[in-house]
Each structure stands twice: as C-alpha cells, then as structure tokens.
Amino acid sequence: MRFTILLTLLAAAVAYAAPIEVELVRRIPDETDNSGPSPHRDEKRRCVMPSESVTANLLMSRSLIVLGIAAVLLLQTKPWSRPTQRTPSAQLEESHPPEMLPRPTPELPTEIWMLIFDFADTRTLAAVSVTCRFFHAISMDALVSHLVWQSPERARRHLSTFWVRFQNKGRSVSSLTIKFTPFLRSETVAFDVYADIFQAMSVFRYGLRRLVICGTALPDNFFEFLDGLPSLQDLNLRQCIVPPSPQHLRTPPHLQTLSLVDLSPRCVGVYSAYFVHLFPSVTNVSIDHGPHAHHCSKLSVPTIECAPKRITLGPAVDDVSCLHYMDTLSLFRLHELETLVVIVTELHYPPFICFDRFPMKDNPHLTQLRRLQTLVAPPHVVELLARATSGLRRVAIQAMRFTILLALLVVAVVYAAPVEVQLVHRISEEARDQGPHRDEVSLLGHLKSPGNVTHIIGEPFAG
C-alpha cells in the first residue's frame, strides 16, 4: 500500500515539472528561426543555454522536495486496512455476538491482593494461582499458609517433594494440622515411627503460629521441635502418646492458647503426659484430666508457673467427682483468672448427680480468685467458689433443678450486687423418655437483691 502511494507521488512530481520543459523547447526554436543569420545568434544561444541549465536544476530540486515531503508524510502515517464492504444480507448471515473482553485488572498494591487471598478457600486459591504469573506469585503464600495432613503417607510425600523444592516458602506456613488415626489401646506402638516427619517439619519453624496434632505418637524429638518455634501461639494436642517432658525449654514460645486433651504417657504412673509447666506465659488453658491423670494422684508434677486468664477443665472419662477438678485447679496460679469453665458430661444423662457432698469443703488454694468474674460449673463448684471469691458477675449452673435451686440460693445469699445467673439442665434424647426428666429447663435469672429473682426468660444453653 505504501509503495503504491509513493509511485503516485512520484508521477505527480514529474507531471508538475513537464510543462516547463516543453515551453522552453518551443521558445528556443522561435527565436532562432525569425532572426535568421545574424552575428548576434551565438550571443543569444549563449544566453539561452544557461537559463536551460538553471531550469533543469530547479525542476530537479522541486521534484526532490516533493518526494521528500511525501516520504516524511508517508513514514509518519499509521498503516490502515481497507474496510470490507458487506451487503445487508451478508451482514445478517455472518453477524456474530459482540466479544466480551475482560476489564483490565486494577493496579492494586500487592499487599491488598494478599489480604484478599487470605479470605479465600483452598479451591479458589488453586484456581487463581494458574491464571497468570503475577497471581501465582502472590497467591502461593496464601495457598500454603494452612496445611492439613490426614495420614503419615501424605505428610511424607508432601515433605519429600514440594517442601524439598520450595524450602523458602516454609515461612508462609502459619497453621499446621496433623490428623492421624489414633492407635488402638491393644496395639503395640513404635514411639519414634514419626520421627522423620517431625525432623522435616523444621522447615516451618519461623512462621508457624498454630499447631494441631491428633492421634499421633510423639517422638523423642518433639520437645526439641517445640523449642525451635519462636512464633507459636496456639498448641492443640488430642489423643497423643507423649514422651517424658523436660523440666523447661530453652526458648519457650509465648503461647496464648494451650489445649491438652486425652493424652497418654508411654509408661502409666511414671510421669505426667500434661506438660503445662513448659509455657509460663500462656493465657488460655484447656485440659481434661490435668497433670494428675489416670489415677496418679501421688505423681510428682513440676511446678506450674503460668497465671492464665481463662481455664477450661474438660470431663475426665472415668472420674465423676468434682474434687478432681479442684485438685487440678489448685496447681495453677489463680490471681489473674477471670473465666473458669468446668464441664461434667455425666450431668447430661441419668442419674444426673455428682457423688460429692454438698456443700464441699473449703480449699485454701481457691482464695487467690480475686478477679474471677465468669463461672460455668456444676452446683458443687459454684457453691464452693461463691464462698471463695467476691467478684462473680456471670454464673452458669449445670445440674438438676433441685441442685440448681440450692446453688442459686447460695449465690443469692452471698452476693448483694447484681449477678447474672444462667440455670441449665440438659438431658440427652434417650433420657427424655425415661421417667420424670422429660423436659429441658434453661432459665436466665438476674439477681437484683439477695434472694430476689426479678426477671426470668427461657434461653437455650450454648455448652
């Protein structure tokens, strides 16, 4: 197309210069014929020939100027294509729906994209990571931030392939959950069967903040692994076989939440499987049996230095007595305790009773409860702690209606200040068809003055 335009401009330049050349050729013969032989002919010819040379040079200059301007204009213009002419019938036959082009991605900062990806699930992150290199680079950290291993085979395969290749991504893992199948009680267990997995897990040591381990025989290097987790904040162990713990860790992590449930030692009666003493700065503790588990009441337990603000004592499987909970509670430093939750599952089904005397004897260790404000417990514990502390503001009582009234009476007599009391009596579906325990009672009462319940509403108990 450009070549055709250039030829056209060249032809125009030649046509522009041609008339002047013809006029000069015709003018010169007229002058020579009419004059005849003359002595001045040579002089006239000498005058005409220089003008002829100047005119030719002028024409050449004009042509070059025109060609130069045309070339400059041609180089500055953008190429275009000739539009195709279609008849209306052809347009109707060949018409296609308009193409939906994606809107350009806004140029958001990388930090904003990373915050968005933190709220996406794993499937969404996997789809986003394959769209482009930019999203792959910034979504990879969010994709590996929460790991879940449900079998030792998967854990070993993951550690030996992905994490060998991308060790620099270990800092991006903030949560690791290990859910293996617990061993049978009659099964012979090799305690170090998972030692290689915990050894390879050191790649996560700088970024790991939450660790959940379930159904695992912890190897001997487990506490060494814990000692190398400076960022760990939440530790949750369930149904694990625990090796003997050291007296202390060199650099214990600053835990905020510690949950130890249904732990077993390798040798029953030799040491405790509950190692609360290793974390002196933990603020939220949830345990079931406590350090004196499996009827090892005379077992020597290291001194617990932590002063938690919230303690949850779960149900001991083979222990119904509330004295067990009080013995466990007395091992902690209680001067910072604000919330205490005691769960007794035996009160959810017949015979709905605890085999403890009511009221219970005073416990000298409970005099430290100066900041206790929220209490969820059976009536025996509520009555005991109502006499040991003076700051209760919210109380939830779990028991039968008769014992609830006894505990409510104690709270009403002891406290003159307003106390919010939640009365709870829960039974299972099977127990509703047995005898007089047919209805479930859940009452919320506000004690405005001693012994005076002014407002009662029904509300289900969220256990």
Secondary structure elements and pairings:
Layout: H1 2-35, H2 41-76, H3 88-94, H4 110-117, H5 122-129, H6 133-143, E1 146-149, H7 152-165, E2 175-179, H8 195-200, E3 210-214, H9 222-227, E4 234-238, E5 241-242, E6 257-261, E7 264-265, E8 284-287, E9 310-313, H10 323-329, E10 339-342, E11 374-377, H11 379-388, E12 394-398, H12 401-414, E13 419-425, E14 441-449, E15 452-458
Biased composition (Polar residues): 82-92
Signal peptide: 1-17
Organism: Mycena chlorophos
Describe the model.
- The protein has 463 residues and is α/β, with parallel strands linked by helices.
- Helix content is 35%, strand content 16%.
- Strands 1-2-3-4-6-8-9-10-11-12-13-14-15 form a 13-stranded mixed β-sheet. It has a two-stranded parallel sheet with strand order 5-7.
- The longest helix is centred in the first third of the chain and has 36 residues, at 41-76.
- It is elongated, with a radius of gyration of 46 Å.
- Mean pLDDT is 70; it is low at 18-35, 38-51 and 425-463.
